[in-house]
Amino acid sequence: MLTARPPAGAHILYAGNARVARIISAAAAKHLTLMALELGRKSPVVIDGRNLGEEVQKLSSELFEYQANPEMPHPFKDLLDRVKLD
To answer: One GO CC term of this entry (predicted)?
Structure first.
């Protein structure tokens, strides 16, 4: 729960259910904090930002191909394996 004002430029990222997302949304709205919600049991993606354009383009292409052929390996697995958390 956001109990204090977040730092300038802060972002809230949440992957989960709608009930908790509503709580987070209400708290974030009080401070006009940017947020991204991933609902519906999909796969959130974290990109380090160094090659953002390249990674987004690759991910978009892989997702398009995956929709056409669900038998192929899921595109998020390879991308998430390459993400390094600092």
So the answer is: cytoplasm
Residue 81 structure tokens: 């394996």
Tokens of 24: 């987070």
Judgement on whether residues 57 and 82 belong to the same structural domain of the protein? yes
Please say whether the beta carbons of 14 and 36 come within 8 A.
Answer: yes
d(CA 6, CA 33): 8
Sequence-separated (6 or more) residues with CB below 8 Å from residue 18: 39
- Tell me which of 42, 57, 73 is where a domain ends: 42
Q: Are residues 37 and 56 in the same domain?
A: no
Q: Name the H helices within the chain.
A: 18-30, 52-68, 75-82
What's the pTM? 0.40
Q: Which residues contact 85 (CB under 8 A, 6 or more apart)?
A: 46
